[in-house]
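Database export, one record per block. Field names are fixed; values are copied verbatim from the stored entry.
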Amino acid sequence: MRSHISPDGLGREPLIALFWVVIAPVLFLRSSGFIAGFFIGPFEPGSEAEIAAYQFLWRINCIVMFVWFAVLSYWSDWAGAGPFAGRIKVDARWLVVGIMLGPALLLLPSFIVGSLMPEGEWRYRDSFNTDIFAPQNWTLAYIFMAVVLAPVIEEVTFRGVAMGALMSRNVGPIAAVILSSIAFALIHMQYSLAAMTVVFISGVGFAILRLLSGTISVPIAAHAVANADVMVLQWFASNPPA
């Protein structure tokens, strides 16, 4: 199983692997907001200009994330780990397991942590503008980013590069799961500490799926379905039936 999880090439380039896991996510995500802000002018809250601004932001973010994955994938393939930092061939039964467990790995810890929090919004930092994720500001680019790009990039980064680099340098699987999941939680800077705990727990679940299945495809599928379910729930919460 270790050979499927930790291609040797990832361990031979520890500093570059560290860059892709710790620095690159912040660098690319911050640059997306910077680029969009350069082109977006002032707008009134609740106006059509606000909706257009957020939709433009998601298009820029989608492009930046695609570039991020393209460069990461090129490096991973060059290092000998393949374009997805690990094996992608998967047993169909494991794929079904990932699809079925994915929503529970994100929603269950969210419900548990949420039940322990005071009433009101607890997911985001106090200074964060939550309107950015409002359904009226979604575009096809946002949906594609949330359901396809983010799961692929985050799983390749944290369950591929991070876990692979750690385990190829003789870090045990439990430590690799925990460390990669901490890094996964920390890139979600828009969230509160409680919400980061939820992300950490779901990251542990995705990492265990990676270990047990021996392929990166299973956590990608689980992550994608989980994000899609969250979006559906968010949409119905914002648009209750009459």
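Remark 1: The longest helix spans residues 48-78.
Remark 2: The radius of gyration is 18 Å.
End of record.
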